Amino acid sequence: MNKIKIAIQKSGRLNEDSLKLLKDCGISIDNGKDQLKASASNFPMEVLYLRNGDIPQYLRDGVVDIAIIGENVLIEKGEDINIAERLGFSKCRVSIAVPKDVAYTNIQDLDGMRIATSYPNTVRNYFKKFNINPDIHLINGSVEIAPNIGLADAICDIVSSGSTLFKNNLKEVEKMLTSEAVLAVSPTISLENQQILDKLQFRIQAALKGRKSKYILMNAPNNKVESIIKLLPGMRSPTVLPLAEEGWSSIHTVVEKDSFWEVVDVLKENGAEGLLVVPIEKMVL
């Protein structure tokens, strides 16, 4: 039986989030400690644990069929590789930072500066748009220390919370791009493995939709039901069931997680009572 080969970052937060997504898709990975390769017990899949920066080349060469990888890495090393699905986790930005005591007014201040980074192509392409020519110093590792030891005037690196910049006496001055985890596909994927990928994407979409949604149950007097239904976003049509108490109904629907509190406030103002909120594991539409 054909197996699709998926690359996942060897360690770190992206590794954990990727394995959680596969678990949410009902895929069990037989993963022993320190294994670099593992198989799924209930899905035609083989997992390879690789260095993040090496994954684009493995995709390009067809060593793996798909990968869960940071979009920022694809922008740097694999712009020719297609993205099949945006996954919505491991979000970050790629930014320029300078020491806190440096007076910064605009991007032109960076012209000619020494910038330490692990993303030379990203930096070069970004500044080309502004006709700026920084002096790029390629560093693999702890980029943040470069200004403190006199190696560079500024850095370009990924930023999540900004705490690492703060600890190293740096301030973020230019956000070059935003990034999230994506499902990338090898240009050489076979027809058979594309069919497996289609099944995997179906599961991923159901799991991600479930994460973004909440199931809401509420009670309302019958004379308020119609107006409440008009306020509800979400599924095609809410479920309305009569309660044991005459003149009352129970309304069930799904709302987007991001707009949940705003929706709840409006529902209460329009007569909804006894709201019960339930997480959704999967949503198959």
Which helices and strands, and how do they pair?
Elements: E1 4-9, H1 13-24, E2 29-30, E3 37-40, E4 45-50, H2 55-61, E5 66-70, H3 71-77, E6 82-86, E7 92-99, E8 114-117, H4 120-128, E9 135-138, E10 154-159, H5 163-167, E11 170-179, E12 181-185, H6 191-211, E13 213-221, H7 222-231, E14 239-242, E15 248-256, H8 260-269, E16 273-279
Parallel strand pairs: 1-4, 1-5, 8-9, 8-10
Antiparallel strand pairs: 2-3, 3-4, 5-12, 6-12, 7-10, 7-11, 13-15, 13-16, 14-15
Give me some keywords for this one.
alpha+beta, 28% helix, five-stranded mixed β-sheet, 8 helices, seven-stranded mixed β-sheet, 285 residues
As a whole number of angstroms, the C-alpha radius of gyration is 24 Å
Separation of the first and last Cα atoms: 29 Å
The proportion of residues in beta strands is 25-35%
Topology order in helix (H) and strand (E) letters: EHEEEHEHEEEHEEHEEHEHEEHE
Q: How many DSSP H or I helices?
A: 8
> Structural class of the helices, strands and pairings?
alpha+beta
pLDDT average, as an integer?
Answer: 91
Strand order of the largest sheet: 2-3-4-1-5-12-6
The gross shape turns out to be globular
Considering DSSP H and I runs of 4 or more, what fraction of the residues is helical? 25-40%
- Quantity of strands, as a count: 16
Major sheet summary line: 7 strands, mixed
| Low-pLDDT residue intervals, each spanning 5 or more residues | none
